[in-house]
């Protein structure tokens, strides 16, 4: 009887490990689908919507792997030239108006990026969903006609993350993240991100519109439209430097 019980426990343990590994592979593939396996360059427009006003910001973005990224604001004119650099887990901003580079302290990571519902931490922790969380498949659901894995991400012990839980819906066909829910440490929903307008762009079938909805601020949302993207382009590591932060175009 003991031998049978031990065998059953071993089988369940191995099955759980395999499922967990599969979930991690799915998240990694979905992440690389949007970032590129090596690098990417993109042009986007972000629309910040509030109950009484809205405004748009256009920007260019370069990334290499999960540790290097640079963002350059192209519009509106009064904010054109502002740039943001990420190297590993550190982030700097450049403002040409005051001719100054500022390193963002940890206390600023939870603040809205350019006044949007996206935070500086969202930009900084691009690698986070793959390396800082334990992944598990917790179901399957249909989102906008696409069969999806429902995957729950729980932070690893001592991981430098702000979310107590993330739930993602990733399509089985193209590994696209169509929906993400972000919860705080008390498991209260903070925001939901929805992806739509799936098109062929940059040689891949991917969503081109992302809508971020804060849970406790009805009427507030941020919409990002992907206008152009190129994957796995040649970029030297030296491009992602404080010197180039002030010169990137």
TrEMBL record:
Domain Uncharacterized protein TP-0789 as annotated: residue spans: 66-246
Keywords recorded for this protein, A-Z: Lipoprotein, Signal
InterPro entries, alphabetized: LolA/LolB/LppX, Sporulation_related, TP_0789-like
Protein name: Outer membrane lipoprotein-sorting protein
Signal peptide: 1-17
Recorded coiled-coil stretches: none
Top-level taxon in the UniProt lineage: Bacteria
């Amino acid at each position: 009887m003991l031998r049978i019980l031990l065998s059953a426990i071993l089988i369940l343990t191995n099955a759980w490990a395999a499922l967990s590994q599969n979930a991690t592979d799915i998240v990694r593939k979905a992440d690389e689908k949007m970032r590129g396996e090596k690098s990417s360059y993109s042009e986007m427009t972000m629309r910040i919507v509030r109950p009484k006003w809205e405004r748009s910001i256009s920007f260019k973005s370069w990334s290499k792997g999960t540790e290097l990224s640079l963002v350059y604001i192209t519009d509106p004119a009064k904010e054109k030239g502002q740039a943001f650099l990420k190297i590993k887990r550190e982030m700097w901003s450049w403002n040409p108006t005051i001719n100054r580079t500022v390193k963002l302290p940890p206390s600023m990571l939870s603040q809205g990026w350019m006044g949007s519902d996206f935070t500086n931490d969202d930009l900084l922790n691009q690698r986070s969903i793959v390396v800082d969380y334990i992944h598990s498949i917790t179901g399957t659901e249909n989102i906008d006609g696409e069969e999806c894995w429902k995957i729950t991400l729980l932070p690893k012990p001592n991981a430098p993350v702000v979310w107590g839980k993330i739930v993602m819906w990733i399509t089985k066909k193209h590994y696209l993240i169509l929906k993400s829910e972000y919860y705080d440490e008390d498991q209260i929903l903070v925001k939901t991100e929805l992806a739509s307008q799936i098109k062929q762009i940059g040689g891949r079938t991917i969503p081109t519109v992302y809508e971020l909805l804060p849970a406790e601020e009805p009427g507030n949302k941020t919409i990002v439209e992907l206008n152009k993207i190129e994957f796995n382009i040649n970029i030297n590591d030296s491009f992602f430097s404080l010197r180039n932060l002030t010169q990137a175009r």
